[in-house]
Amino acid sequence: MKRKSELKKAMIFILVCIACGVVGVLFGRFAGKNEDSIVEMFQDIKSGLQKALPVLYAAVFVILTAVSFLFYGRVKKLERSLDGSDDDDEKLDKIEEIINYPILVSNLLLIASIFLYASCMDTALFTTFGKANDGLYFVFPTILFFASFVCVIAVQRMSIEMEKRQNTEKSASVFDFNFNSKWLEESDEAEKIKAYKAGFDGFRAMNLTCVILWLVSLVASLVLKTGVFPIFIICVIWGVGVTVSAISGTKQEKHGMTERGSWS
Amino acid sequence: MPLYNNLKVYRAKLGVNQQEMGKLAGTSRQTISQIERGDYSPSVTLALKIAKICNAKVEDIFIYEEDEQS
Questions:
Q1: Any idea which fold B3-64 has?
Q2: What value of ipTM does the predicted structure carry?
Q3: pLDDT at residue A35, as a whole number
Q4: What's the pLDDT score for residue B1?
Q5: How far is B59 from chain A (nearest CA, A)?
Q6: Engineering a disulfide at A217: which of A14, A85, A230, B42 sits with its beta carbon 3.0 to 4.6 angstroms away?
Q7: Dihedral angle at the C-alpha atoms of A131, A136, A141, A146, nearest 10 degrees?
Q8: For residues A82 and A91, what is the distance between their CA atoms, to the nearest angstrom?
Q9: Nearest one of A135, A150, A142 to A117, comparing CA atoms
Q10: Which of B33, B40, B46 lies at the smallest CB-CB distance from A93?
Q11: Nearest to A118 by CA among A148, A145, A146
């Protein structure tokens, strides 16, 4: 029975591989035949996006900052409504549930800001319209970049401070370079399990993302001549993720769920 | 998970809220809340600690019931 199910899984795996290969060949032939028009189309899209970059950056900054502060405001309102009654437990559970959103949105703002700032610099240096608009493609994005950092630090600090008010045993500071390790050290068994589960989900998502990005960058290097550097970067991220996970797994096998078995 | 508990009842008997129960057990309020909701099964150590605080046996607070299927 077990062998039959294993055989079925192997057949599905082989079929998916063949289907991916067929799609790859078909896409490759299509791209080969229409290479010039595809390159032209992507260059038009790139040029259009580059021209809209300052507006796009400003819009992303305003929207994500507003959303993170709105989420924080909602949690703060709940915190203010705590009155020491029996209803507090439910409110505190709700606070714990929502407090992750401002942190998530501010992290997304940070990542988007890093990408958009680099894109603006690239446009400022390597396009004629970028060079002609120094203020728009260099000064304005630099101001937004630092403003994003200030907002991210402010939102994360306020959220962590609120978390610390609810959990008085926590003392780690967001300005500490070892914040994550200290926070985990001060967490109890249930919180540690949550952190490990979240880490595992992140690892699985990273693996899938790396496969997709590798395929996309491979096609881009063949059709758009983007080179192998993006593929190399993806492989480095993938390699580090897989290696750290394997080493951590080996440590856990050896020491069990003890502090010595922890990566950090 | 076939693990049920009467922690809320025992906590009420002690007259403490989740925060205070968490402090007594050396754990966070959220963990006490999750145990009460049945969203988290505590370790043996924590279950024994909670039982000691409530002045009861572990099996009085935590009840393991086999699933009908298993």
A1: 434 Repressor (Amino-terminal Domain) (1.10.260)
A2: 0.82
A3: 76
A4: 58
A5: 20
A6: A230
A7: 120
A8: 7
A9: A142
A10: B33
A11: A145
